[in-house]
Specification:
With 314 residues, the chain is of the alpha/beta class. An eight-stranded mixed beta sheet has the order 1-2-3-4-5-6-7-8, sandwiched between helices. It has twelve helices and eight strands. The structure holds iron/sulfur cluster (SF4). The site of iron/sulfur cluster (SF4) has 12 residues, from helix 3 and helix 4.
Length: 314
Amino acid sequence: MAAPLVQLTRFLAETAGTTPSAPPVRKPSWLKVKAPGGANYVHIKNMMRELGLHTVCEEARCPNIGECWEHKAATFMILGDVCTRNCTYCAVSHGTPKAFDPLEPARLADAVERMGLAHVVITSVDRDDLENGGAEGFAGCVTEIKRRLPETSVEVLIPDFKGSERALAIVMDAKPDILNHNLETAERLYRLARPGGRYDRALTVLANARRLGGPDALTKSGIILGMGEEWDEILVCLRDLRRADVDIVTLGQYLRPTDGHLPVARYYTPDEFAELRDIGMRLGFRHVQASPLTRSSYHAWEQVDGARAQRRSA
Ligand code: SF4
């Protein structure tokens, strides 16, 4: 498979006439992870089933599940496990979701308490069938966790709520420590990868979250690389996110969940992720997490600490 032209032109410009090394096209060795199975992993898995909770770690087949669950870090998925949208890179099932469950915040807070988590990430499927897209579910979970565990920081990774500012305000009023909404990919690839989403709308969600949350709120977004974007388009995404005054950005490699999903167009090397991290920091993000296995919630507890420390020293 030929490497994307932009990568060659970038390499050629940088190496001024030297022959560029060909980027890998097979799944490279740096993406191999150990199979999960430690004591904490088994305990958490059993507890999730007992409490009827879903995690994006499992639903999205995240490669970091062994490491994260061993460290007692998990991303909870609220509002069910069936999504009303159908992104071509995502492993979560789509269709008609179950009814809204008002008792979910209490169950989730139970789990967080039992796991003794210091930082919690909550996300959801898209619920375009609900009036406010399920914003009340996010707000309920943040409020209940903070009521029981005031020291625990809570990050919400929200859908775009179809751009509803009212829905976003419901979430922001609950005062999450981090408001995350993923940009996911370059504008050109939205129709292919994220047909139910809009690039501009995602940026507006983030800018509105900054406005509603004020200067103390931390905002965050993520981009998945390898779905066919060009290097320059990644830079455009980063600049657009800075324009929306986003604090934290995550960059990770796209991995095809099944043969029925969008194929991987390119595997980026760890050096390229390091280069993007440096570019991001120069653009002014407070924290950039960039590596092949980075996911929006990967090492999230470090991201919140890092961004806060940066803000204190600013
Ligand atoms: S990176 Fe996020 S989704 Fe993946 S296992 Fe860790 S907490 Fe779960």
